Amino acid sequence: MPSFPGQRLLNQTAHFIGERAQQLQHLNRHDLMNEYTPAPLNKYWNAATVSCVTLILLLAPGLFVRVPLAALWVGLSFVLACIQGVYVVYQLVMIALSLSLLILLRVAKNAYTLITKLWYRQPPWRRRLEALQTADNWSEYERNASEITEDDWVDDESDMPAAALLRRAIDDLAAARDASSRDGFRTLRFALSGCVKRNHLGIEDRQWYPARSPLRTKRLVDAYLDEVCSSLEKVAATQSVPVDEKARFFDQVRRTVGVTALCLSGGGAVTMYHGGHILGLIEAGLYEHIHVVSGTSGGAIMAAMFGCKTRKELLRDILVPHVSTDYKRDGTQKSEGLHFFPPLFRQLVTFASKRVLVDRDQFKRVCDFYWGTITFEEAYNRTKKVLCISVQAQRVLGAGSAQRLLMNHVTTPHVTLSSAVAASCALPGIMRPQRLEAKDDQGNVRPFEVDGVSWIDGSIQADVPFKRMATLFNVSNFVVAQVNFHVKPIVDDSARVEEHWAVPSLARHYERWTGAAELSVRMRATMLSQLGLMPTLYGNSVRKVFSQKYHGDVTVSPRFTFGESVGFKVICNPSVADMKHYLRGGKRALWPHVCRITRMVRLESCLADCWATLRAERRRSFGDLGALAPENNLPNSAIGRDVHGVGHDDGSPERRKVAFSTTEVHRDSPSYRQLEWEYRRLQTRLERLRSENLDLRGRLKSVAALCAVQPPARPGTPASRSSPPTQIIVDAATTSSPSRASRVCTKPQSPERPASPREIGC
């Protein structure tokens, strides 16, 4: 490869810096989702105070006698305040330097790319890669990308450290599949238990999905995935193993694998790029494999559309250029001025009168226009997509940070999407806090009160709710679409890192150095926040803005124009031309990740097919009552969607765990709802019969006592001739079984006229 002067020195310097950066970055390598949390700083300041007092006692023991205690205390406090001030200034300077370093690295990368383009001729695959950025649809992109990948790189295993282990795993699975049915199932289950997991042996690492191979990865990786999927299908199709045993195995595997979630970041009006990301998923055939989506701030707009609209409705009504200007195609939106962001002049007038740019009531009207009164639960029942929208409380309740709320069909099933989107977009300074609304059983929309607080933009504390989504829905892979203009300088698209570098090793050093600088910013911001010295924005601490993570396992970031990079487009309502640009740029940014995302969801899709096979087998064996949970790999029983069979109880006060019995049904199935309704009806009837039984027992005792004290009638009297003897009838079976209707009555033994129910009191 041709080189330019000084390239060797540059490579050596980058290698040295990369090693040091890797050591720093390793501090946070153990946990991708957690923020850096240093030790509490209060103990350090306490130790500093004790050290100062001890030093004074050693150097000038008579100082406590000559100087008043109050003056000594004031002087000591002043010294400590000066030390703390110097410490704060140092940390702020280091944060500024780290941010400057990130920007300089970005500029250096662009300069290096320009120099390499001018210095020597680009390889053929790089020229074709640049041509991919002009593709208008997936078919054109796929056709052009198929000409780039080099077969030599696909077949080469010398650069794969785990190649031997992958080959051995493939051979073990193939041998287990060829064994006898019963023994083969046990052997295959044992082999799969160590293979079916996320990123096993690094097969999902970014280095196996480079820019030079847009649609293909190492042939060994595909062979391994094919063998694992074939083994899983063999286990599901084995007829000699009970369906319950196979169901338990696949339930464990589904929990291990987890699901992939699409996370849409905030960014104001620029979040319309997310519409292009969703359009790219649909065109590439990945829409059906994404079951969990989250949105925060402006990203909640497209996330709500993804969660409540079907694929056909998205293509027809949402992912079109006129969605922001004429959603219903009848001119209503333009005539009534229903836009998320009013014109700039009107924003200035609103700011002069209300100190915010957007009126919250007008914004709520726009949200009602788009989503109406549909709730999270109704949206999930309609599309089977889990929608998560993040908000946070306006004020802090008690000690600690503000309360956060991740809304979805599990935590807030009756909250309306329109109020959730409006609250998530309420960034302080842009819009005032919003109130949530919920729909009751009668369909009336009422305020949703949680501790009487209003809600604001959730991206201040968590632009991407990694932890909560992993806990609720067993999300193990995060595809983050990042369009925040203030994050863009420090977050790179994970598919475009290596395409700027002629030397692949420089790309790795660049990643290490940027990762170390990012970690430095997060670490120092967290330290300052523990001292309460971080600035506030409209009463909200900006610590989380610096300390939270903005990238995931796959990070999609479109190419910004100058106006988008500096934030000019953030508060401008998109026009038809803008929407065309956003949709085109969004899908072009996602297509380079299709190869990697396809391999990520490969196991999820296979497990979904196997689960569907088990559902069909169980339905044949036990009827509709034996249906298992839905075949999508969604919450993996992490939210208790499966129930026990009748009569099963583990006796613990905790929430009951998932069990597979012959009478297990899913809550979404009609058979479950019918059984639940019948069970509740029988419970109500049982309680009523128990109450009637107790009442009739009391009446029986009263009648028995009355008969014991009543004198016998004289023979020959009219009463004795007209009134036959009274017989007390008690159904003996009902006294021992409260579930059967008790019959207690006083029945006259008259053959002429039968007694009425009112007379016998039954």
UniProtKB/TrEMBL annotation:
One of its GO terms (biological process) is lipid catabolic process. Pfam families: DUF3336 (PF11815), Patatin (PF01734). Residues 711-762 are annotated as: Disordered. One of its GO terms (molecular function) is triacylglycerol lipase activity. It comes from the Eukaryota. Residues 262-470 form the PNPLA domain. Residues 732-743 have a biased composition (Low complexity). Residues 672-699 form a coiled coil. The keyword Transcription regulation does not apply. The chain crosses the membrane at residues 44-64, 71-90. Keywords: Coiled coil, Hydrolase, Lipid degradation, Lipid metabolism, Membrane, Transmembrane, Transmembrane helix. The active site is at residues 297, 457. A motif (GXSXG) lies at residues 295-299. PANTHER family: NEUROPATHY TARGET ESTERASE/SWISS CHEESE D.MELANOGASTER (PTHR14226), TRIACYLGLYCEROL LIPASE 4-RELATED (PTHR14226:SF10). This is PNPLA domain-containing protein. It comes from Pelagomonas calceolata.
